[in-house]
Amino acid sequence: MRAEGHRPITTQLYFAGGDYLDSDVAEATKPELVIDPQDDGTGTRRSTYDFELEPEA
After folding, report:
1. d(CA 9, CA 41)
2. pLDDT score of 20
3. Is the C or the N end of the chain the one with fewer CB within 10 Å?
4. Exposed, middle or buried by CB within 10 Å (0-12, 13-18, 19+), for 4?
5. CA-based end-to-end distance of the chain
6. In what helix (H) or strand (E) does residue 35 lie, and over which residues does it extend?
7. 23-51: pLDDT as tens digits
8. What letter would DSSP give residue 4?
9. What is the pTM for the complete model shown?
10. What is the number of other CB atoms lying within 10 angstroms of the CB of residue 6?
């Protein structure tokens, strides 16, 4: 993820109940990275997540 004037980041989100929650190779699974998409009323499951980027020094 990139935004002008900010340091780029690389991250991964996980789905609640997903197969890889307990077996992530990097052991980077944290509760704050687990999302639980909900039905939006149309049969599509959606979720949002806010990233906070660090400004470049």
Report:
1. 32
2. 75
3. C
4. exposed
5. 17
6. strand 34-35
7. 776 677 888 889 999 999 999 999 999 98
8. T
9. 0.69
10. 14
